[in-house]
Fold this protein.
Amino acid sequence: MIPGISVVIPTYNREKFIGEAIRSVLEQDYDGKIEIIISDDGSIDKTLEIAASFGNSVVILKKPKNCLNQGVAGTRNRGIKACTQEYISFLDSDDFYLPGNLKKLANKLISNNSLGFVFCRMLEVKDQNGENIFKPWTHKSIYKNDIRNPVVSRIKIVHTNSFLFRKTVFDEVGYFNESYPNGEDGDLWMRISEIYEGTFSDHYGAVYRSHHESGQLTKNSNTEIKKCFIKIYNDAISRYYKLELKDKLRLFQLKHWLLVYNYREKKLYYHWQYLLLIIQYPLSYIRLLPIKVKEYMEKHSGCHWNILDFYSNKSQVKQ
């Protein structure tokens, strides 16, 4: 039997986009069952009315009256707990899937029972005079370290919309940490990758809307964000030693991210501490150097907004 997929769509006041998000799931060509769970965080516009217009195609979870906190972590967690299918994916309510995405992702998990998750490429979209203009969100080159250490390796590798997980992953690792006002998704992806092996599907599967307008569930000051990420990376480093992960490259990158969030306003001190880190882990830095050079060249090669052929831009996973 083909495994079913539960798609969790957290939402708050997204009447403008929720219909497109739902339709993008309903139009998937996946042969297994697709369960759409709309997890609402207390919308006061027509979001739930639009979602309800899809009838039995969606399950709507209203925010419990006794829930006083507002945020994407709790909203997604309520969705996860309601999932009944073997696989789970997430889709933000102002974004949308591209045709064939879930089938391509699921095929990766179906073909390898040892995998806990798979992720794909993302596009970014903005509205320009009423026309959707796209560009790649994901880096052009994806390396084995990006797959083995998502979030830790580099930014713009994985996105919440780009994943498909086995439901058993959350049974073992847990859910989004609701005490984090920001970065709760990256924290969970790190915790999952500490225990589970994942893989990459080289296709554009979802689109991220860069202009959120109203209804954004994550709203925090820069100070709160900084404190949150410092705690996330400190906790990740502690788990690294506790779990005896034996991946010096991961540890080097975790410590580097901690330096970034601690000292990025103090540039001279940051560079001094980074030099000391390189001295401590020279082989890790040498392994990353070619990737950093190529990433720099790609960044400055001129990636402009344009209309893309979603299916023509293919690149291979680099060794």
